[in-house]
Amino acid sequence: MLIVTDIDECVLGWADGFHKWLLSVGYKIENNWRQCSSIEEWLLKNNPAVDIESLKDFSRDSDFGELSAIKKADVYIPLLHDMGHSFVAVSACGSNSRTFELRKKNLDNLFPNIFSDIICVGNGNEKHGPLKSLNG
User: Around Cβ 41, how many Cβ atoms within 10 Å?
Assistant: First the structure.
């Protein structure tokens, strides 16, 4: 069975990584960021200085390639893979080569030889096209 999964906040802790990165580059961050339904909502409502360019900068920074696994993904994904399931990652993290390289490195380090394909589309873009191509 093929399992297609989003990566950010499903497999990797993107929000925590982004939050730490923002602090490391000098942003002053309110602690209410987890009360919003999405990181985009929090950015727009609470931190006008943090914008889409910050998201793009983070996705090209080496910290983006070192996100931690969340929700026991590091336990269950290898278990499902050992049971014969294959995995494809689809992420709207950005489609430039640096972002792809960092995303691939991160997944390969945490989940060696598990993801048969990693598909990255532009920041916040819809994933319908890649998903349709996977469906045949």
Answer: 12
In this prediction, residue 109 carries a pLDDT of: 98
Distance CA 48, CA 40 (A): 11
Cα separation, 97 vs 94, in Å, equals 9
d(CA 56, CA 99): 9
* Residue 69 phi, psi dihedral angles, 5° rounding: -70, 145
Q: Are 48 and 133 in contact (CB under 8 A)?
A: no
- Quick check: 69 and 109 in contact, CB under 8 A? no
Q: Which residues have CB under 8 Å from 82's CB, separation 6+?
A: none
pLDDT in tens, 17-46: 988 898 898 877 666 656 666 666 666 666
Q: Would you say 7 and 107 are in contact if contact means Cβ atoms under 8 Å apart?
A: yes
Could you say which DSSP state residue 25 is in?
Answer: T
What DSSP string describes 90-111?
EE-S--SHHHHHHHHHHHHHHS
